[in-house]
Design goal:
By secondary structure, this protein is of the alpha+beta class. It contains two helices and five strands, in the order βαββββα.
Length: about 90
């Protein structure tokens, strides 16, 4: 199983970070065909065997993605998209 782990600092505050994470979770669910839900300060998305978890607090956002073997070729593209999203919405 391929894994992606990212942790970024931000200056948005907890409430705005949560809103940005909701946008990210919706996009991930659309692309992977799944659904997401909140568990406290953690958004969780599962689809096609892939699992993504996004955690936030007032100063950091962390994402962990586990891709099944069949989705392994998408790892680089997904990492690049996540990095682009962080740069665009959390800086």
């Amino acid at each position: 199983m391929a894994q992606i782990r990212m942790k970024k600092s931000h200056a948005l505050g907890a409430e705005k970070a949560r809103g940005q994470i909701e946008l990210l979770a919706e996009r991930m669910a659309e692309r992977l065909g799944g659904a997401w839900r909140w568990h406290g300060e953690r958004a969780v998305c599962e689809a096609r065997g892939a699992k993504a978890s996004v955690f936030y607090d007032a100063t950091t956002v962390s994402i962990e993605v586990e891709l099944p073997f069949m989705m392994r070729p998408m790892k680089g593209v997904l990492e690049a998209k996540l990095e682009e999203y962080f740069q665009r919405y959390f800086t």
